[in-house]
């Protein structure tokens, strides 16, 4: 599983994070087991631990140092190749990673590549709850991807399908420049449609999507792999939590269980 693959095995933070996420059955429509991270936000320790896991990851990649010299000019950018180790998340070659994560039922998804991140991209609305904290901590900029008609400036749009409908993401033109390296943050990946749309949007403006990271992944959505494989950016899906929406041991009040 992701935790053991990525140096988080036995990490005491995982249980607290897992238990702080509520599952609300049949919301927003019958049959959906809604993973509610608002209860995580009420738990200071669990919330901080969640952000810290992301920050630890990117700090280990030296991103805070590079972000300190962040420049919109490509000529001033220091880019390095980062070789992931088992210790710092254990990322392997893309295809292998996808297969492994799906075999174990991935719950924490992280799309990976090998360079320095300049921008954190948050997906409305729940990506905004984690993205800015991570961006501040590692010294990166934060760019919001918003739902339609929310951004006042000129935008580019990308439509996508959701577990319970369809939607559209928009980003200000000029918010990210061609060649810039970005990290996409969201709370959860289900079908992968939202993250795929985010990546496509960023690719259309010439950005390099270094990674996408979510707190929760729903392993029952197998087609997420195919979606990511069709993208230009390097992507993978991994887990550090094991929260199963309708598994035994989870009651109707929405209590989750850890690995
Ligand atoms: O992997 P997917 O199938 O695309 O689903 C995941 C997305 O769904 C949820 O957002 P939602 O669209 O419900 O919007 P919200 O954050 O505004 O509630 C969640 O926060 C992710 O962004
Ligand atoms: N089951 C779920 N819980 C919370 N957010 C979601 N977005 C898509 N599916 C979801």
TrEMBL record:
Pathway: Purine metabolism; AMP biosynthesis via salvage pathway; AMP from adenine: step 1/1. One of its GO terms (biological process) is purine ribonucleoside salvage. The chain crosses the membrane at residues 99-121. Its EC number is 2.4.2.7. Residues 120-217 form the Phosphoribosyltransferase domain. One of its GO terms (cellular component) is cytosol. It is an enzyme of class 2 (transferase). Its main location: cytoplasm. GO terms for molecular function: adenine phosphoribosyltransferase activity. CDD domains: PRTases_typeI. It comes from the Eukaryota. It is found in: Cytoplasm. Keywords: Cytoplasm, Glycosyltransferase, Membrane, Purine salvage, Transferase, Transmembrane, Transmembrane helix. It catalyses: AMP + diphosphate = 5-phospho-alpha-D-ribose 1-diphosphate + adenine. Catalyzes a salvage reaction resulting in the formation of AMP, that is energically less costly than de novo synthesis. Belongs to the purine/pyrimidine phosphoribosyltransferase family. PANTHER family: ADENINE PHOSPHORIBOSYLTRANSFERASE, ADENINE PHOSPHORIBOSYLTRANSFERASE 5. Homodimer. This is adenine phosphoribosyltransferase.
């Amino acid at each position: 599983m992701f935790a053991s693959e990525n140096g988080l095995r036995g990490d005491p933070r995982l249980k607290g994070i897992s238990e702080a996420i509520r599952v609300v059955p049949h919301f927003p429509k019958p049959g959906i087991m809604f993973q509610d991270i608002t209860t995580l936000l009420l738990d200071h320790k669990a919330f901080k631990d969640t952000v810290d896991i992301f920050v630890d990851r990117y700090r280990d990649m030296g991103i805070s140092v590079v972000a300190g010299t962040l420049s919109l000019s490509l000529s001033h950018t220091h880019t390095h190749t980062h070789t992931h180790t088992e210790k710092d998340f254990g990322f392997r070659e893309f295809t292998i990673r996808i297969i492994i994560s799906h075999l174990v039922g991935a719950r924490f998804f992280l799309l990976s590549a090998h360079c320095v991140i300049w921008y954190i991209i948050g997906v409305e609305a729940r990506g905004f709850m984690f993205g800015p904290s991570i961006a501040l901590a590692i010294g990166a900029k934060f760019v919001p991807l918003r739902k339609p008609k929310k951004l006042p400036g000129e935008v580019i749009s990308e439509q996508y399908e959701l577990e319970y409908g369809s939607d559209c993401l928009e980003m200000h033109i000029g918010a990210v420049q061609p060649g810039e390296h970005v990290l996409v943050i969201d709370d959860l990946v289900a079908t992968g449609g939202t993250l795929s749309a985010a990546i496509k949007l960023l690719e259309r403006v010439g950005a390099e999507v270094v990674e996408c990271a979510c707190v929760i992944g729903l392993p029952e959505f197998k087609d997420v792999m195919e979606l990511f494989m069709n993208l230009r950016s390097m992507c993978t899906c991994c887990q550090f939590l094991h929260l199963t929406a309708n598994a035994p041991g989870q009651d109707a009040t929405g209590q989750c269980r850890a690995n």
